[in-house]
Design brief:
alpha/beta; Immunoglobulin-like; binds copper (II) ion
Length: 141
């Protein structure tokens, strides 16, 4: 026969276990909702990756909506950079963007807010001549 106290302890334990299980299930479903909304955000925000490999930007032409972040990742064995071409002409306006030197494995990103065509190149000696150029086209629709 269980004493009154033992019965009460068992009851309280059962209730607490019920609360714990309910809380864990709630956490699980909340985390699922988080994962879903994160995926949706990425579709609307948009992040595009350009890989620097074999003295090329891959892809070398990217069409994006305003507000898209472009991530440049150097997967080559030598250093590169990403410099807005317009700034390379004599008397030109300052570059809309200019990355630091990206060593192998480095990444750098830029958010393109203004519509327009942005040609870019690698200013590391000789790389432009070997074809290391690219273009970002930012369009509203
Ligand atoms: Cu380069």
């Amino acid at each position: 026969m269980l004493s009154r106290v033992t019965t009460r302890v068992l009851l309280v334990t059962a209730v607490l276990l019920g609360i714990l299980v309910g809380w864990l299930e709630l956490q699980h479903s909340l985390r699922r909702e988080d994962a879903t909304s994160t995926a949706a955000d990425h579709e609307t925000d948009g992040t595009v990756t350009v890989v620097l490999r074999n003295l090329r930007y891959q892809p070398d032409e990217v069409r994006i909506r305003p507000g898209t972040r472009v991530v440049f990742t150097n997967e080559d064995e030598v250093a590169h950079n990403v410099v807005h071409s317009a700034s390379q002409r004599v008397g030109a306006a300052p570059a809309a963007f200019e990355s630091p030197v990206l060593n192998p494995g480095d990444s750098w990103s830029f958010v393109f807010s203004e519509p327009g065509e942005y040609s870019f190149l690698c200013t590391v000696s000789g790389h432009q001549l070997m074809g290391m150029v690219g273009k970002i086209i930012v369009q509203d629709e």
